[in-house]
């Protein structure tokens, strides 16, 4: 097992550090910036069906559901296709309206999650086209779907999902961009530009990983907190949810993720000097609005840990701690902003003596309802 961990103390840390490679493996062969195209066999063969979709329904659980939420922003923003994101476990018990004009995208690392499989079966019965995004080759979901695209994260051993999440976002971004290009919602030059930018993401993730020692220091300062709040807007709202989930899963600290502007409708009542608040405040995502949310936290003495764009000055003045990520388009920013939150949860869990790779009560794949 020590050999498998490749010199890291835990699988989770190894998998966090594998993300530059995992993301690259996921777009390798698919992304061709020079030709200005994206190649995805499962999409190319079913292009008509995908382009004619009235809407996309995304069904998933846990971290994969958060990847689905990021995808909702990407599909609507770039490809102008309406999207609904569903907890697979709720979807089928609602007698949902599904037609043969709908496309269901099922996202699952393991490809074995019972609730997601059941959602797929229901959608197929009602005539929808079902596209899978799985990590495990030949898994039940990969076999049950009409078409799909694999993430190439490699085996994920840590129960708390890390590299599966960022590679799911990578695949879904490629899919959305491909549909955007086919639909003509994206200019040719902007399309080439974003393909080149995606190619540069692994290097930017490496740069984020360099903040690990700083994040460890921040973790030491807050490891005894009983609650955490995570805030983000737009593309980074799902990242806030995922950050909170990671902390809950492995450190057993209660954490909530919220859209930053929703804070005033409830969570703000929780803020005092004992409440660490992690805020994603990158430059391109409603920055000024998030800055004013940060001011509201500060005036209530909450402790602010902010994820900011390199060189940021304004938030640095307000926050107790800042973690910088390289500049990038808002639509790609979750691939960077997620990383510090994974590391923060990891270090807090280790410092609290928790079993990081196998947290209590959780399973890597949930094959029962
Ligand atoms: C379990 C795991 C989570 C995972 C979720 C969905 O709860 O502990 O890490 O996100 O299942 O799993 P899937 O394999 O469908 O992505």
From TrEMBL:
Subunit annotation: Homodimer.
Transmembrane segments: none
Native species: Robiginitalea marina
Name of the gene this protein is made from: glmS
Alphabetized UniProt keyword annotations: Aminotransferase, Cytoplasm, Glutamine amidotransferase, Repeat, Transferase
Broad class of enzyme this protein falls into: transferase
Chain ranges of the SIS domain: 46-185, 218-359
Subcellular location, record wording: Cytoplasm
The protein's Enzyme Commission number: 2.6.1.16
Record field: catalytic activity: D-fructose 6-phosphate + L-glutamine = D-glucosamine 6-phosphate + L-glutamate
Protein name: Glutamine--fructose-6-phosphate aminotransferase [isomerizing]
Gene Ontology molecular functions: glutamine-fructose-6-phosphate transaminase (isomerizing) activity
Active site: 364 (for fru-6p isomerization activity)
Chain's role: Catalyzes the first step in hexosamine metabolism, converting fructose-6P into glucosamine-6P using glutamine as a nitrogen source.
Shown stretch of the complete protein: 247 to 615 of 615
């Amino acid at each position: 097992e020590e050999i498998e961990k490749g010199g890291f103390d835990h699988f989770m840390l190894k998998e966090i550090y594998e993300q530059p490679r995992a993301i690259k493996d996921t777009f390798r062969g698919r992304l061709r910036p020079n030709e200005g195209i994206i190649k995805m066999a499962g999409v190319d063969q079913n292009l008509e069906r995908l382009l004619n979709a009235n809407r996309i329904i995304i069904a998933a659980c846990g971290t994969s559901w958060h990847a689905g939420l990021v995808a909702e922003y990407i599909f609507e923003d770039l490809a102008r296709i309406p999207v609904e994101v569903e907890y697979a476990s709720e979807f089928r018990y609602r007698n949902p309206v599904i037609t043969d004009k709908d496309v269901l995208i099922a996202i699952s690392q393991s490809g074995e999650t019972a609730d997601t499989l059941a959602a797929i079966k229901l959608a197929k019965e009602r005539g929808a086209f079902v596209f899978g995004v799985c990590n495990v080759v030949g898994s039940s979901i990969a076999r049950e779907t009409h078409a799909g695209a694999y993430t190439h994260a490699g085996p994920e051993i840590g129960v708390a999902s890390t590299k599966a999440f960022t590679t799911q976002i990578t695949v879904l971004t490629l899919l959305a961009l491909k549909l955007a290009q086919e639909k003509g919602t994206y200019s040719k030059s902007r399309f080439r530009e974003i393909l080149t930018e995606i190619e540069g993401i692994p290097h930017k993730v490496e740069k984020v990983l360099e903040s690990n020692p700083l994040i460890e220091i921040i973790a030491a300062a807050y490891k005894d907190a009983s609650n955490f709040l995570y805030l983000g807007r737009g593309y980074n709202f799902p990242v806030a949810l995922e950050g909170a989930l990671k902390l809950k899963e492995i450190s057993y600290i209660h954490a909530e993720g919220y859209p930053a502007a929703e804070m005033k409708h409830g969570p703000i009542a929780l803020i005092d000097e004992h409440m660490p608040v992690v805020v994603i405040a990158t430059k391109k995502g409603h920055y000024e609005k998030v800055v004013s949310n940060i001011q509201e936290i500060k005036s209530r003495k909450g402790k602010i840990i902010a994820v900011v764009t390199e060189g940021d000055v304004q938030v640095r003045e307000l926050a107790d701690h800042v973690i910088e990520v390289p500049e990038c388009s808002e639509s790609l920013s979750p691939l960077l902003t997620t990383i510090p939150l994974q590391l923060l949860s990891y270090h807090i869990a280790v410092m609290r003596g928790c079993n990081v790779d196998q947290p209590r009560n959780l399973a890597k794949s949930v094959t029962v309802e």
